[in-house]
Amino acid sequence: MKKHFPFIITVCFVFLSNYLYAQNKLYEIDQDSSSVWNLFKYDVNTTWHGVKHAFTKPVTWKGNDFAKLGALVAGTAALSLADESVNEFAQRQVSDFPSVVRDFGWYFGSPQNYFMANAGLYGFGLLTKNEKIRYTSVLIISSSVTTGFLQSLAKNAFGRARPGTDLGPYNFKLFSSEGGQHSFPSGHTVLSITMAHAIAKQFKNPWVKSGIYTIGAIPPISRLIDNAHWLTDIAFSAVVSIIVVDSIDAFLKRNNAYNLHHQKPKNISWNVTFSGNKIGLVGTF
């Protein structure tokens, strides 16, 4: 059930969008005078179009976009050289790592808890008619559905062995249904980084941003300590999550969703760089 959760959420939004508001494009409403029900229909429609944009964006890719994808894949492969050494280091920290932090990392990154937390955030924004909170929640859910579906599909397709199986980082059993063969990518990382990045983008204060990213980093780190993922599972997941959030965020602002015309979207050019056993995501403003 858990591994199909992102897919179920996606299907629900497809049907809700078609049932609640049969629109082929984003539309505008008066955010202040509209009823809660109309705001909800607007948010569902906006979420659906955000998801659709993320999945159809590759159709418009050009040479440079494919080059970046190739760099991400190559960088991940190069970083895999450090997987075993990082895993060994992480296992030496198990006895000293606070159990409360490990528990938080597990529960926060679990799909059910994650979506319930965002449902609470969205519910508050909807009932109070707070555009900023509703926008943030829509950005989180649309990005989460996209990244969650992709990671669920990739887990089954690649069938990479988890560290705890003692099969090594290069053991793959394609299209395996075994839980021990679902290491790549990291679902906990995908969800936690997606939420952290979406929320952090709403603040300008660097200290607030740092605090949000620190909390978002707990699930990925705890998964390393729990011997459930390799370093490359986490690094790849984090990069993909950031790219998806930024893509949907730019799409919503470009289409003036939530009256964000006064917030000019930043033009950021993302590039994946790697050297030796390091991989990095560089954004040029």
UniProtKB/TrEMBL annotation:
It comes from the Bacteria. Pfam families: PAP2. Gene3D superfamilies: Phosphatidic acid phosphatase type 2/haloperoxidase (1.20.144.10). Residues 140-244 form the Phosphatidic acid phosphatase type 2/haloperoxidase domain. InterPro entries: PAP2/HPO, PAP2/HPO_sf. Signal peptide: none annotated. This is Phosphatidic acid phosphatase type 2/haloperoxidase domain-containing protein. It comes from Neotamlana sedimentorum.
